[in-house]
Amino acid sequence: MLKINNLHASVEDKEILKGINLEVKAGEVHAIMGPNGSGKSTLASVIAGKEEYEQTEGEIIFDNEEISELEAEERAHKGLFLSFQYPVEIPGVSVTNFMKTAINENRKAKGLEDMPAKDMLKMIREKSELLDMDRKFLSRSLNEGFSGGEKKRNEIFQMAMLEPKLAILDETDSGLDIDALRIVSNGVNKLKTKDNAVLVITHYQRLLDYIVPDYVHVLLNGKIVKSGGKELAHKLEEHGYDWIKEELKAV
């Protein structure tokens, strides 16, 4: 699904990623953890193709295709989805209209016609029920006046509608109370299949109690320095990152 080889990337000429290697297979959930400033959000942004980040070396292979030269929207059309840490407010554009546009743009990129209105409404109804969303929510302007939990739930609704092959959740848990965290996590879990994959970027082990990862990777100073199973996240919660830094010094 995703293979990253020796990925280097910089922002405003400052190198942030310093040789990332990562492989994510279909059906898997991978978690990326690390302290502030280690490069977690940069990694998500570079995979998604955000233009302010410059990939200086290495390759990103998504679904057997090298995508480093593709624009962000081209990557999205191929099935890559990024849930933002801080979703943007778009006044005057309803959640429903935003989703209709996104889905039909994806269809156009695949040479398909717009989805018929009745099919679109049926899909919207099914996915909003899946996520326990109030239907009134769908007529509101995108993210305008939304609480933190509503913004994050809306991101998962977009993911449900777009049905990506790879979903990258960039600190989806930030600012969420326990109830909102549970609802968002349930949504992600319901959308998992053997044919898609999820990359979860988080500071906290608590999210991983709900979205249980197959693999946990620790990012420090722009490199993945340790990988393991879900028990690694528990150890990080208990002991922090200093023990890993000591291990690295000893090598």
From TrEMBL:
InterPro entries, alphabetized: AAA+_ATPase, ABC_transporter-like_ATP-bd, FeS-cluster_ATPase_SufC, P-loop_NTPase
Gene Ontology molecular function, alphabetical: ATP binding; ATP hydrolysis activity
Keywords for this protein: ATP-binding, Nucleotide-binding
Top-rank taxon: Bacteria
Coiled coil (UniProt feature): none
Residues covered by the ABC transporter domain: 2-246
Keyword ATP-binding listed: yes
Similarity comment: family membership: Belongs to the ABC transporter superfamily. Ycf16 family.
Protein name: Iron-regulated ABC transporter ATPase subunit SufC
Source organism per UniProt: Mesonia phycicola
